[in-house]
Amino acid sequence: MIPESVQVVIVGGGVIGCSIAYHLAKAGITDIVVLEQFQLTHGATWHAAGVVGQLRNSQNVTRMLRRSVALYDTLEAETDQAIDWKKVGSLRIASSKDRMKEFRRSATTARSFGMEMELLTPKEAQDLFPIMTLDGVEGATYIASDGYVDPASLCQALAAGARKRGVRVVQGCEVTGFSIENRRVTAVETSLGTIRAETVVNAAGMWGHELGKMMGTRVPAFAVEHQYLITDPIPDLPKGMPTVRDPDLLLYWKPETRGIVVGGYEPDTPAFARQGIPRGWDQQLLQENYDRFEQLAANAAVRTPIVSTVGVRKMINGAIPISADGDFVMGKVAELDNVFVSCGFVYGIAAAGGAGAVMAEWILEGRPVHDLWPLDVRRFNFHHNTRYFMYDRAVEIYAKHYAMKWPVEENTSVRRIRTSPLYPLLKERGAVFGSRAGWERPNWFAPEGVEPVDKPSFDWPNWFEHVGAEHAKVRAGVAMIDLSSFAKMEVMGPGTLAALQRLAVANVDRPVGSVIYTQMCNERGGIEADLTLCRLGAEHFYVVTGTAFGEHDFAWIRRHLPQDGSVHTVDVTSGYAVINLCGPKSRQVLAGAAEEDVGGSVFRHAQMKPLTIGAAPVRAMRVSFTGELGYELHIPTEYAAHVYGVLRAAGEPFGIADIGYRSLNSLRMEKGFIVWAGDVSPDYTPLEAGLDRLISWKKGDFVGRDALEKMKADGPSRRLCTFTLDAKVPVYGGECILRDGKVLGVTCSGDFGHTIGKPIVYGYVPIAEAGHHDYEIEVYGERIAARRAEGPLYDPEGLRMRG
Asked: Which of 121, 495, 533, 586 has the highest Cβ tally under 10 A?
């Protein structure tokens, strides 16, 4: 029997769905039903390998995975259900010098996150994994708190813990549809009847995409094929052997009863069920493909020769969940107000405990305690959810699971999904494109005779000197960068001003034509959006934000608009191309291209002025992200190529150049400008980030004001600091900040400042430690002397961009 109505319906009885139910019940929400179309664990959970690792590039994702381990340490005692949790540690082998450098970077990141990771010699690694050879081994890392668990037992224990607290689990119940009214799911239709629900959670694993489509939500979570084999018994395997990975050989090993599991991530795995998962896919496996496994078997024979001398007890070829970018799909969907999702877990057993905990926070509090933007469903756009894109991209992501984690790298599959009108013009001029939210964006420009291709490195990559040359062009002359991928929205109608005043920390009641840079905060004072507003009329604003943040930021704004329909929003991202004209000679170029006067006395900083450039109408916003005099030219899309040509002709006497996003990042870091999801997020407030100058305390109430006033009175507990390094080393963020041997934090941004000639990093430091001058930044395991700067490193008074 199913209930007529419940507070929460969770669709999916795998390890993720059961973990969410368990954690909600622990928090006191027990009016929950878990719906499973087959039996618990019968999707992908039952055949998962069960390896549990914790360290990831994101501090908050690592925190989530550490919560899994903390739960697995106690779950068996709590539920009286064995989960076969073996906290034996994890060993990662480096079979190349580059991999060892990657491992040193990982060890630095682990240190900054407060995790213990040991760097081992080849012999020390062999002592832990005696069946390995030392051929080509450069070293290894070891995390003692990792391990492995039995996936099916874990799922059943979580379900048992939830049931003990009153959660109902209904198996053999297929969801067939949803009733939706006013952006809310009001009822879940099933093969056993209809259930009214206040909140619905999509934890359907590889069915997540199809379930999302039933509700009209974008959930790019599906499946690819993954194989591993279980060997016959191997004599003398040590008790307590760790899980092992050799990413250079694409392999992992995990102890199994008297034998060992050998699996890996090979290129060109097939995507599973491109046309939809067959009905009745209940605890099923795919046909073994020994030919496809041959590469992994050959590599296993290199590192563990004994594996090729014992028999294969079983080959498992299962469909495992994955998302369109390889990271989890979690959070509140943008399209509906009471629907959450938690799908796409390519390493779901490692994540399950922590994911259930943070999803419970998300459902109960509206957000997790620590921001999880890298996993947030709102990071996806329309194209991510299409069959054309998501399957081929997932195959590439799967193949890269053990690939070298270069500090900067682009995916290559399914490209040119979204292109600016300037794309073909810039390609002809040597642009090397990256992809962001499906947009092709110029990262750098290869001069004539230089191959226009990225060659990533842990040292200085092939684009370093060319990015430096672009940087210099902006500082000394004039350049253009295509910013057409910016997300743009217009907000209009009675009540618009009042709504935006309540959302923004800055005063937005400025004269028509004003450009206002502001943050929007949540009730805790955390920064939910970092964007620009341009006032077009008394009740009409133009909103501009970063390429990847439109879904997130615009959903935040819409959620806080009046519910009476008096305020309307229109996403105009595709309607306007954007060219940033920047550099000390940019006014001279603009003057030669525009019909109107653009002199400094009539077109001041932070103003918007309608211009005519060539034959095109342009919204020109005098703003800068480079620290130089600059203009963002917002151009109706059909005129963009024309305007680019007019500007290029006007700029030729001044040596006008094209630049890319990599030089833009270097320029903004010298000027002290921050980026959302890197330097600021809902975890940080404007006071902690040094943005308090933007807060209008006189304008009245706004979201987050109470929390910010309290922080202002008490003083923030941490501070975003800028550091320069004494040695010329590559930095990208994720480095460890130390003083007198004490770990203070982790850097959030890093780049080389080509004007000042030094590496620059930003990072948060406890306020008690934020007033010193001398620090150390650990880079690839080496501690580099660093200096904290007060204010921007370049033009601290802002005279150049305001002149």
From this structure: 586
pTM above 0.85, yes or no: yes
Write down the mean pLDDT value for the chain. Answer: 97
What is the maximal distance between C-alpha atoms in the chain?
Answer: 85
Where residue 239 falls among pLDDT bands split at 50, 70, 90?
Answer: confident
Residue with tokens 């209009």: 492
Q: Give whole-number Cα distances, 390 to 286, 324, 378, 438, in Å.
A: 21, 5, 16, 11
CA separation for the pair 242, 561 (Å, rounded): 53
Q: List, for residues 486-516, the tens digit of each pLDDT value.
A: 999 999 999 999 999 999 999 999 999 999 9
Q: Which two tokens stand for residue 787?
A: 């200096």
Looking up tokens 């961009």 gives 801
CB 719 within 8 A of CB 93: no
Tokens representing 286? Answer: 């795919």
H runs (alpha helix) in 447-546: 464-476, 496-503
Q: Rounded distance, CA 439 to CA 419, Å?
A: 6
Cβ neighbours, 10 Å, residue 722? 20
| CA dihedral for 572, 671, 734, 411, sign (positive or negative) | positive
Residue that is written with structure tokens 């750098």 in the block: 444
The letter for the amino acid at 154 is L
- Phi/psi for 771 (5° steps) reads -105, 5
Sign of the torsion formed by the C-alpha atoms of 441, 380, 389 and 398: positive
Residue 325: band (very low, low, confident or very high) from pLDDT cuts 50, 70, 90: very high
The 10s digit of each residue's pLDDT in 23-70 is 999 999 999 999 999 999 999 999 999 999 999 999 999 999 999 999
Look at residues 693, 515, 518, 534 and name the one whose alpha carbon lies nearest to residue 605: 515
CA-angle at 419, arms to 414 and 420, nearest 5°:
165
Query: How far is it, in rounded angstroms, from Cα 449 to Cα 31?
Result: 67
Burial class (CB in 10 A: 0-12, 13-18, 19+), 743: middle
Measured distance CA(632)–CA(685) in Å, rounded: 27
Q: What does residue 426 show for φ and ψ, rounded to 5 degrees?
A: -70, -35
Per cent of the chain over pLDDT 90 is 98
The token pair that represents 146 in the structure block:
């990792």
| Per-residue model confidence as pLDDT tens digits over 673-688 | 999 999 999 999 999 9
Q: How far apart are CA 496 and CA 565, in angstroms?
A: 11
DSSP E strand boundaries for 271-381: 312-323, 329-332, 339-343
Q: What is the dihedral of CA 657, 658, 664, 666, to 10 degrees?
A: -60
Distance CA 67, CA 761 (A): 29
Can you tell me whether residue 89 is helix, strand or coil?
coil
CA distance 78 to 81: 8
C-alpha torsion sign, points 278, 280, 286, 287: negative
Contact 73, 65 (CB under 8 A): no
CB 659 within 8 Å of CB 445:
yes
DSSP state of 447: P
For 428, residues 6+ apart whose C-beta sits below 8 A from its C-beta are: none
d(CA 83, CA 41): 13
Q: Which of 496, 470, 498, 489 is nearest to 529 (CA)?
A: 489
The whole-number pLDDT of residue 258 equals 79
Alpha-carbon dihedral sign for residues 211, 213, 216, 217: positive
pLDDT in tens, 411-439: 999 999 999 999 999 999 999 999 999 99
